[in-house]
């Protein structure tokens, strides 16, 4: 039972960065920064990435279709990481170091998203509740169907 809460706390901590940062993707400042970094169609791509970040983050947080939400976050992280944190192309050593840390942070988040995509949201989630109801409904239907 203690482990159930550990997974819930982990989902909260993991998803919080996506939910908090997702809202910023609708600001003109974020769109401008992405455009300056060379992101094509930044005025469309950045808000779309904000929707992905928010939808995936909320999905993982509440554990509703968390595997799909985690895959959405993975799909968000790959292009964002490669487009926005190109530490290998930065001349200034301090900026390169910061971008490398951001790149590695995103790689770690990608690993977490892939773990959730594989293992699911855990026992204290809407997915687990839905699965338990399906089992109960299936058992009840089986009990009624027997002669």
Pick out its properties.
mainly alpha, 6 helices
Please tell me about this protein's structure:
The protein is built from six helices and no strands. The chain has 147 residues and is mostly helical. The protein has one domain (2-145). The protein starts with a helix and ends with a helix.
Count of discrete alpha- or pi-helical segments spanning 4 or more residues: 6
Structural class: mainly alpha
Specify the overall morphology: elongated
Q: What's the helical proportion of residues? A: over 70%
Count the beta strands.
0
What is the typical, i.e. mean, pLDDT?
93
How much β-strand is present in the residues? Answer: under 5%
Main β sheet profile: none
Number of domains: 1
Distance between the termini: 38 Å
Ordered list of secondary-structure elements with their pairings:
Layout: H1 2-22, H2 28-36, H3 42-62, H4 66-84, H5 93-119, H6 126-145
Helix pairs in contact: 1-3, 2-3, 3-4, 4-5
In summary, what is this structure?
The protein has helices at 2-22, 28-36, 42-62, 66-84, 93-119, 126-145. It has one domain (2-145).
């Amino acid at each position: 039972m203690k482990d159930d809460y550990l997974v819930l706390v982990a989902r909260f901590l993991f998803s919080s960065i996506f939910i908090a940062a997702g809202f910023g993707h609708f600001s003109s400042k974020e769109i401008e920064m992405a455009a300056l970094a060379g992101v094509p169609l930044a005025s469309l791509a950045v808000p779309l990435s904000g929707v992905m970040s928010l939808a995936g983050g909320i999905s993982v947080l509440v554990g509703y279709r968390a595997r799909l939400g985690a895959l959405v976050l993975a799909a968000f992280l790959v292009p964002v990481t490669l487009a926005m944190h190109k530490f290998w192309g930065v001349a200034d050593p301090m900026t390169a170091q910061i971008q490398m840390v951001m790149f590695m942070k995103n790689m770690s988040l990608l690993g977490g998203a892939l773990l959730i995509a594989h293992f699911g949201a855990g026992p204290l989630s809407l997915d687990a509740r839905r699965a338990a109801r399906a089992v109960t409904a299936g058992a009840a239907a089986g009990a009624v169907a027997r002669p």
